[in-house]
Design goal:
The chain is mainly beta. It has one domain: Jelly Rolls. It is built from 8 helices and 25 strands. Strands 2, 8, 10, 11, 12, 13, 14, 19, 21, 22 and 23 form an 11-stranded antiparallel beta sheet that branches. Strand 5 and strand 6 form a beta hairpin. It starts with 8 loop residues before the first helix and ends with a strand. The structure holds 2-acetamido-2-deoxy-beta-D-glucopyranose (4 copies). The site of one 2-acetamido-2-deoxy-beta-D-glucopyranose (NAG) has 5 residues, from strand 14.
Length: 363
């Protein structure tokens, strides 16, 4: 699925890193959870020992709620229940109802991210069709790692190009360059943030920080700013954002030959927060043993629930910005894809899916 022609604008504008974007969507405060779907099933995606609860269970068990004292969204693992052998522990996976097209930027301001043995959290995005629509991992880690890792996962043919046109900070750690989900056991093309402030206890002690993900035709970029280094342009709840003012990204996957053609490998993305336990990554014995001892399931998931006291996201806001003049928000319809509406960046206009100004909009 892709946007073909919308008012003829998409052909005239070229999304690029370092452009101006206006806010098109905000998840914050008491209504934070309104725009998300809860998975409502056990983790049948990554083989985690986790049940992603429904919206009503998340509310009644206080696994997803807005803390009235801070107005922040809390997304967490059950840290009060004893789990019986052969059962899974309750946690949360939420997916944004809206999808965001090339030409958008998402900015997530967080105070705390989940960590601890067996814990595998991520803030990321993917297209409904995977891997052909692509996946962008802004924030991810497992167990007791001390740094955030960022990655893309795609069809074959998309790579992280490391020539001088890549904007990635020289201190960033390039772990792998092939983004093909079928290669290297789907590890993706991974960049690790060198900053210890990007994960775990050090992240929380420093007051967290802000992750910025730019999804542009020229390339995909992720910036992380620990709280004391958040630029004024992000800290003041700005309605307009110029990514050229943010400095070099922590990770950058440029388009073009030898890199990743974003138009080919990426479709509009749903944003996702999830926390699973053990599973394909955190629970892989060679990964688990790098930072934790014992057995992932036996010693943690069904062990002392206080293992999960730090297994939560504390999110002040997630804001999505769209390139000025471009339609980047694809809204979920009442029935599948048939009722999708489009919001025009900068104008705040909501229109129906079928006919705009006499022209057919195809999604
Ligand atoms: C996971 O479970 C849900 C609900 O039963 C189902 O709709 C979905 O197809 C399953 N996904 C996979 C990958 O098995
Ligand atoms: C990436 O490389 C760093 C430095 O060698 C290492 O500490 C980290 O575990 C690697 N991450 C992955 C996912 O391989
Ligand atoms: C920014 O927005 C958040 C969420 O809407 C709010 O809690 C916070 O007070 C705002 N900050 C400023 C400086 O306006
Ligand atoms: C569970 O975790 C929360 C933080 O999310 C913490 O405030 C609480 O004290 C922990 N323990 C129990 C028993 O709720």
């Amino acid at each position: 699925m892709r946007i073909a022609t919308i008012l003829g604008l998409t052909t005239a504008l070229c999304a690029s890193a370092g452009t101006t974007y206006n806010v098109v969507q905000e998840y914050a405060g008491p209504t934070f959870f309104d725009g998300w779907d809860f998975y409502g099933n056990f983790d049948n995606l990554t083989n985690g020992d986790a049940i992603f609860v429904s919206s009503s269970e998340a509310t009644s068990q206080r696994l997803a709620y807005v803390d009235p004292s801070t107005n922040h969204a809390i997304i967490k693992v059950d840290n009060t229940s004893r789990v019986a052998f052969n059962e899974k522990r309750n946690t949360v996976r939420i997916t944004s109802q809206d999808r965001f097209a090339i030409g958008s930027v998402w900015v997530a301001d967080m105070l705390h991210v989940p960590y601890g043995c067996s814990v595998w959290p991520a803030f990321w995005s993917q297209a409904p069709a995977w891997p052909e629509g692509g996946e962008i991992d802004t924030f991810e880690g497992v167990n007791q790692v001390t740094r955030n890792q960022m990655a893309l996962h795609t069809n074959p043919g998309c790579s992280l190009r490391q020539d001088p046109t890549s904007l990635t900070q020289t201190s960033s750690i390039i772990n792998s360059t092939n983004c093909d989900s079928a290669a290297n056991e789907n590890s993706g093309c991974v960049v690790t943030d060198p900053s210890l402030q990007s994960y775990g206890e050090v992240f929380a002690k420093g007051g967290g920080g802000v992750f910025v993900t730019e999804f542009a035709e020229e390339g995909i970029s992720v910036w992380f700013f620990p709280r004391d280094l958040v630029p004024q342009s992000l800290s003041s709840n700005t309605t307009s954002l110029d990514t050229s003012k943010l400095g070099k990204p922590t990770a950058n996957w440029p388009s073009g030959p030898g890199g990743c053609d974003i138009n080919t490998f990426f479709q509009p993305q749903n944003l996702i927060f999830d926390i699973t336990l053990c599973g394909d990554f955190a629970g892989a014995p060679n990964v688990f043993s790098q930072t934790c001892s014992g057995k992932c399931y036996n010693d943690y998931v069904i062990g002392d629930p206080s293992t999960y006291d730090n297994a939560y996201f504390d999110v002040a806001s997630v804001r999505v910005y769209g390139e000025v003049g471009k339609q980047v928000v694809l809204q979920k319809g009442q029935s599948g894809n048939s009722g999708i509406g489009i919001r025009v960046s900068g104008l705040g206009v909501l229109v129906s899916s079928l006919v705009i100004g006499g022209m057919m909009v195809m999604i």
